[in-house]
Design goal:
One of its GO terms (cellular component) is adherens junction. It is found in: Cytoplasm, Cytoskeleton. Belongs to the shroom family. One of its GO terms (molecular function) is actin filament binding. The chain is mainly α. The chain is flat.
Length: about 170
Amino acid sequence: ELISSLRSKLQMLWEERELVLSESRECAERGSALEALVQSVCKPNEFERYMMFIGDLEKVVSLLLCLSSRLARVQNAMRKIDGNTDAEEKQSLNERHKLLSRQREDAKDLKENLDRRERVVSGILAKYLTDQQLQDYRHFVQMKTSLLIEQKDLEEQIKLLEEQLENLEKSI
């Protein structure tokens, strides 16, 4: 019964992931159209700024999500520490926690820098685009970020359920 329930949940997550991937493809198409528009109206150096921002957006958001996920796994492992855990493993977990915490703080600084750059890019685009086009740009940036977060969350849930299912099937 439990295996059947896990498989059912896994199937639902796979279907949801397909929907998110489809939305991501649509968002990428909107991004391509927006890129062509920006290239046609902006100066080359302004267009390059736009492209660097869009490229870095995905990288920085993905980095933050990855580090947060890894940090959460280490924190979960640290909560499971008990009297039977050897000192070497405790030290390793503490060191990984410190390292990941520092890296996540650095990534947050990158995100703050990226937010400042987004304001600069918005200012540049405001000179060339209509209000509707500017609104479309802001929606694109928001959707791109949201879809990255949703996709990463689904991947994590799927991975967890797959591991649970595998462990359950091994134990039977």
